[in-house]
Specification:
The chain has about 350 residues and is α/β, with parallel strands linked by helices. It folds into 2 domains: about 1-10 and about 25-160 and about 250-339, HAD superfamily/HAD-like (Rossmann fold, 3-Layer(aba) Sandwich); about 175-245, 2-Layer Sandwich (Alpha-Beta Plaits). The protein is about 35% helix and about 15% strand. The chain is built from 10 helices and 12 strands. The strands form 2 sheets. An 8-stranded mixed β-sheet has the order 5-4-3-2-1-10-11-12, with helices on both faces. α4 runs parallel beside α10 (about 315-339), α6 (about 175-190) packs antiparallel against α7 and α8 (about 255-265) packs across α9. The termini are far apart. The protein binds the ligand O=P(O)(O)OC[C@H]1O[C@H](O[C@H]2O[C@H](CO)[C@@H](O)[C@H](O)[C@H]2O)[C@H](O)[C@@H](O)[C@@H]1O. Ligand L263DTV3 binds near residues 98, 101, 206 and 280.
Length: about 350
């Protein structure tokens, strides 16, 4: 269905699939034994994405959003574009130490420019405050913990806690004591595993194994799965060399996207065009929402072929940067044209 729509869209727009003019050198995969992990644009080396088996034909199904740019803006003309961005692997490269996943100054400038022209939100698995520390922008909205902690526009206050977090929408708040207990149990569970670490993301907990010797990966996963399997209040999702322990409520990045569209005042708008850029499995929930709206653009960041329902792709954060800069430039030129 999606492919049919994409094909029709390409046809209507006279679109032609080509590779982007990006520098060819990218780095080898740091973790070759994890099928789901791509290089996130960080590792130095000689692997060329076009040489990755299956990448060229995958790109045929998920064309570069840079090559599609003119078609995207043609579709966006006169509509209200709303931008949603993931953080890790999208705005910042994947690195070994989660505390060092810094965003470049160029990327910050690009996001700031985009946010000047379009309502822009960052939806991350991390705790909301942490993402804000990394991003350091006041003109974007932040959703942390995979959308379980959303700071929406002030006029759309849906929840207010007594600790002063006025305006934050936190649908899993009642789970907080249980999450804190779970965090302690997880620490105990992984204590003996070399390189394993816990990241407390407030409404969810990440168990990182990027720095765990490969021989111990399965053992770590088994231990965490068995702990979480015994706690009906929790569920487990997997990201890039990370297990994400989340409260078992039906709420994901797709729901967060809908919530933000709603609070931004676009719930009934016919001419709204959400654009979501993300690299990880949890971003697929947001892609799904856009796909079902039949308006907007789900864009995956990946330099290896992977299963996705995103229509378009960008190879790594450097292509995300190029795309965002073009988007801001396009809007500026439009404003100038109509003046
Ligand atoms: O939704 P996201 O913003 O993409 O968050 C997903 C996870 O991202 C972070 O982990 C990932 O990036 C780290 C830094 O590059 C990397 O070391 C790790 O292996 C990746 O999985 C974050 O630290 C996690 O808490 C998020 O769940």
């Amino acid at each position: 269905m999606m492919m049919r729509k994409l094909t029709k869209f390409n046809h209507t727009m006279g679109f032609q699939i080509t590779h982007s003019n990006k520098p060819k050198k990218v780095k080898p995969f740091s973790c070759p034994n994890n099928d789901d992990d791509d290089n996130g644009g960080t590792n130095g080396g000689s692997l060329i994405p076009d040489d990755v088996p299956g990448y060229a034909s995958w790109l045929g199904k998920h064309p570069s959003a840079l090559n599609m740019f003119d078609s995207i803006t043609k579709e966006a003309k006169g509509k209200k574009v709303v931008v949603f961005l993931d953080y890790d692997g999208t705005l910042s490269p994947i690195v070994d130490d989660p505390d060092k996943a810094f965003m470049s100054a160029e990327m910050r400038m690009a996001v700031r420019e985009v946010a000047k022209h379009f309502p822009t939100s960052i939806i991350s698995g991390r705790r909301r405050e942490r993402v804000k520390e990394f991003v350091q922008l006041s003109n974007v909205y932040y959703a942390g913990s995979h959308g379980l902690d959303i700071m929406a526009p002030p006029r759309a206050v849906k929840a207010c806690d007594k600790k002063g977090n006025e305006g934050a929408f936190q649908p899993a708040k009642l789970f907080l004591p249980a999450i804190q207990e779970m965090s302690i149990e997880l620490e105990d569970t992984i204590r003996e595993i070399q390189g394993a670490r816990i990241e407390d993301n407030k409404f969810c907990i990440s168990v990182h194994y990027r720095q765990v010797p490969p021989k111990d990966h399965e053992m770590l996963k088994e231990k965490v799965k068995s702990l979480v399997g015994n706690r009906p209040n929790f569920r487990l999702t997997e990201g890039k060399m990370v297990l994400e322990v989340r409260p078992s409520i039906e709420w994901n990045k797709g729901d967060a996207l809908n919530y933000l569209l709603d609070t931004l005042g676009f719930s009934n708008a016919k001419d709204v065009l959400p654009l979501y850029i993300g690299d990880d499995r949890t971003d697929e929930d947001a892609f799904k929402v856009i796909a079902s709206r039949r308006e907007g653009f789900p864009i995956i960041v990946s330099s290896i072929p992977k299963d996705t329902i995103a229509w378009f792709s960008l190879r790594d954060p450097s292509e995300v940067l190029a795309f965002l800069l073009r988007l801001a430039k396009w809007k500026k030129s439009e404003i100038h044209f109509y003046k």
